[in-house]
Amino acid sequence: MLTDSHCHLASHKFPRGEVAALVSRAREGGVTRMVTLATCLDDLQPNLEIAAAHPGVKCCIGIHPCDVHHAPQDVIDQLRPHLADPRVCGIGETGLDYFHPAPEGWDETGFRERQRELLDAHFGLAAEAGLNLVIHTRDRSGDASFQDALSIYRRHAAEVRAVFHCFISHGENAQAVLDLGGLVSFGGVATFKNAGDVLEVATKVPAGRFMLETDSPYLAPHPHRGERNEPARVAVIAERIASARGESVEQLAAHTTQTAIDFFRRIE
């Protein structure tokens, strides 16, 4: 009864003809629920169609921070008509990415400000819909994107819960998210041999405050690192984290799935 709380089934790395097989392999491996996330307006409809075609798959809608330069000024208005769609279980993936350089025609200051502006707007949309939010943060060094996203979250925490997905920071940052009522989510990085600190954080976050994810097609877990990832491999991540926490996979699957059900609300 595992849940992949974050995957990208509409990614170009997953040809549409393969999606049914991906979902089938996941179910065979005990992954009964999957949340696929849009990253731009162009893949909004494909994600909705995938959710319609596959029971147990829901989607989130939003604009990834690396795509904000393509987003029109009325992008939030374009997302709004989908809020009541039962296939939609959350808002995102949104957030702040200070790792990738500003695209052509933008300077770094303006690009980051546009990301912060849209993250704030996504929080407003989530509050309007009664849904929760999925946040991406990434830096070249340090944790400026995390701290900026946390500051924006702090302004909205009374109305919206957020999950900081693919969490790879230290325990103090995890606690800062938990203190606001938010969640963190662990993926393939927690299995990497050079990321023992991430696994250590995963052992300390209380049950009910974190979820599992693949972020597929990215970040395949060890021993598949470097390969195209897929939702079935959340089982590999679960085995590693359960072992480190001293839990059975069944115990970990039960509480992380319940956490996902509570957070996304429409995935039961």
From TrEMBL:
The gene is ycfH_1. CDD domains: TatD_DNAse. The keyword Metal-binding applies. Keywords: Hydrolase, Metal-binding. Pfam families: TatD_DNase. It comes from Haloferula sargassicola. Signal peptide: none annotated. GO terms for molecular function: hydrolase activity. The keyword Thylakoid does not apply. This is Metal-dependent hydrolase YcfH. InterPro entries: Metal_Hydrolase, TatD-like, TatD/YcfH-like.
